[in-house]
Amino acid sequence: MAASVAEDAQGPGSTGPNHGLRIFLIWLPIAVAADLLLYFVYGPHMPPGQMSNSAQSQQFDIKVMSVLAAPVMAFVLVFMAYSVIVWRHREGDDEDGPAIFGHARIQATWITVTAVIVLFLASFGTYELAWPGFAGAGAGEGPSPIWKPDGAPLQVQVIAQQWRFTYRYPQFGGFETTNLMLPVGEPIQFNVTSLDVIHSFWAYQLGVKADANPGVNNVAYTTARQTGNVTVRCDELCGLWHGAMFDYGKVVSVAAFKTWAQTTEVQLAAITKMLPPYSTTYDPTVVPQMSKAMVKAGLVGGNGYYYPPNDPVQP
Amino acid sequence: MAIETQPDRAQGAGGGQPLGRSGARPWWRRPAIHTAIVGAVIGYLLGHLLGDYLTGATGAANQYPNVPLSDSEDWPIVLGYVFAIVGWLAGLGVFNDIFRQMIGRPAAYNGNGQHEDGGLAKYFRYSLDHKVVGLQYLVGMIIYFCTAGLFAMAIRTELLSPVHHVFTSQVYVEIVGEHGTMMMMLMSSVILGPFGNYLIPLMIGAKRVAFPRVEALSFWLTPMAFLILLSGLLLGGFPFGWTGYAPLSIQSTVGADSYAVAFGLMGVSMILAGFNIIVTVICYRAPGMRWSRLPMFCWAMVTTSFLMVLAAPVLVGGMYMLLMDRTAQTAFFASRLGGSSYLYENLFWFFGHPEVYILALPGFGIVSEIIPVMCRKPLFAYKVAGAGMVGVGLLSFFVWQHHLFDSGINPDMRPLFMLTTELISIPTGFIYLVALGTFWKAKIRFTVPMLFALGMYFNFLIGGVSGVFLSDVPADTTEHGSFFVMAHFHYTIMGGLIFAFMGGLYYWLPKMMGIKLNTTLGKWQFWLMFISFNSTFLPLFAVGMAGQPRRVFEYALNLQPLNDWVSISSFVLGFSILLFVINFVWSTVFVRERATANPWQSRGLEWQVASPPPAENFDQIPVVLSGPYDYGVKDAQPVADLHPPAGVLSAAISQSAATRAEA
Lengths: 315, 663
Hints:
Oligomer: heterodimer
Strand content of chain B: under 5%
Strand content of chain A: 15-25%
Distance between the termini of chain B: 14 Å
Number of helices of chain A: 7
């Protein structure tokens, strides 16, 4: 793209060296080398890796955009470097430069080329977002998602509160745990919600990021491709201990996950009974059966409420 | 054509003074900053007492149920701030003329030929001279910038280690909030305030701005916004950064009131400043100053002003609703009472995205002004440059939800916002077309302003391209809320706006003060700042991509080497700013080397008058004869006829009136 611009810039009737061609010849190897390195050498290692299909989609997008961006940046930088070296002011030369007010063809080319790149990127991004293989690319899609994976995904509820994530597994009796355990190769649906302020659930290696809004169920999909550890961090400033709001999840084989889920369901059965019934959102100030159960169990901090029922003061 | 109907009479003095009998009184009896401080303190005490009375803390009849709410503590603070603002303005003498007219006496300032007397004292008064206001803004902005910069140093100090902490988490989030908010709200006027107010009348050939009182008021609100924001530290700070997302901001302790009042107040200041610039440029251009001859800096200022006037009211509204939620128990943003936290996010970013272009466009304007002069060539593709500014300004209102891609709000609208966000890179790219075209076969002089302009183009390229990565939803899912975003907007704002500001300062200070800044120190500052800036923020893209969220004080151990590198670079960056402050103070206070009238051989109209400009800018309203960028044009006409023969103006006016009558 920059080639045509550079050649046009030569303009008709100019004298002296062909600056446009020179800039083009400097730019071309740099752009080609940068693109090859970015796509083939650095590309497979780009963040956030390939642990899930959504991470894969993000890595692919970053890769494609890097490949498009590198030549553009290289063109501007080569042009600027060439200008400051070749067209610098020489001692004793007090004449003004040539009075060039514009060049219709170059302007039109520039606008066309940038418009084509931009429109390509927009349609590429939309395709990546909507393609069922990536199913919303791991981003939070709100309570009624439109881009979903095929089949019935495993439901994992992420409950964020200051400054902890807990997880509920509704398909296993709705037990609540601080351990995030996920099966490999199966579509997973995260239902992300918050009990107090806005948090954001960021499972880095899985390429999942969804804001946890109070009173809202924010859905995100992913399918893990490999087993391994997952870092979970809060990605939205949520108060004093935002920086310490992180934990680690694990992606394990389907069989190991089933065993773990069923064992934990049995282990936690007594506590699960005390929890409010599974729901997409929770209101921490109005959980009567929970406070009753907690009072019975001797846990009466805050009168059985997380906060006083009026406007809560931040602890 | 915007020809004044009676140019010689309508445009009176460039300055004035609210108190007519000014010379008669000693300085301490005239309203100035010291009376303003007294007014603010009295106002705060009154407001605080009123708040205490309303909430029953003074023992009077309690109007609200006495429950342990943060709200009952918020009333005295908020009312204290509001009354302090009123007291501050009253102490400054802002209302004096209004009251004089109310009781039937003539206003002290009538727009004719009253000028500031006295040397430094006028800079501490409510002066109506746009040149005084410009310099007030300049010094104010440098103070605000350095204060917020110190907070940044503190952040980087804490991030030297993920396990050993310098600050508690409480202090750390306070610092993060103060740094972000102070930079984002006060730096919105860093170029429009000093350079816009000072130079626009000079650039368009006017003797004054359209609304001197509004302009002066817009400045005198900024110290109050700054102090109120800082006072938040005394109240325990606010733990929610510059975005102030509800419900965190509703739940926070009283420090959050300082955030909402200060940010809302700065919104008002932006609206006022914007209106003044818009009307000045539209209505006060000299004859012959067609839109096609308007300097690119004026285009940038007009576009910025439109963004301010259209976006800031949304901020003021949002902050008002936030304060109501915090004090009067409304529930705009509390989802369990029928409100929505999304509403706040929408309001905030509907302001917040134009805001970042309020920060970017002035930088484009300054570099577009510097490069033709230093390249000795006309600005390449003038119309494209103007279209770029207007295009960016227009599109900036249609992109705000790209800040909320992962929030679950309107997921089906994301492709639209992805499209608009990527479209905005087309007009932004125009700025580069203009630059590269201007460099083509130029004779580039590496003066300090030109170095800063080149640095700005380099930095903004990285900032702009990384912005395209953020506009793509899948890629944004990795990058959102991480240090990648942080690096991106520091490249556009610090690398773009502040580099352009520095360039503009070295370029225009000889005009504004008649004093040259030291060139050697300037070059040192540039190279130190340029290298350490890139060394600070380039690694942060990698840090963000590696999974470090913003505003954390603990991070993964394996990221410590990179974070340490960044912290040390940032200290060097801080030192380069210190060099600037030293240069600024040294050159303007101690050395005071007189600048020649037109040190850059610029064709700009502002350079055609003496430096610093005379009290009324121009003896007569000039007649503009040609464009400001006609370098290298053989037999180019001078920019303007500064002493048009008598009768020329009236002839032109009657002619245009006749054309209008025919139309």
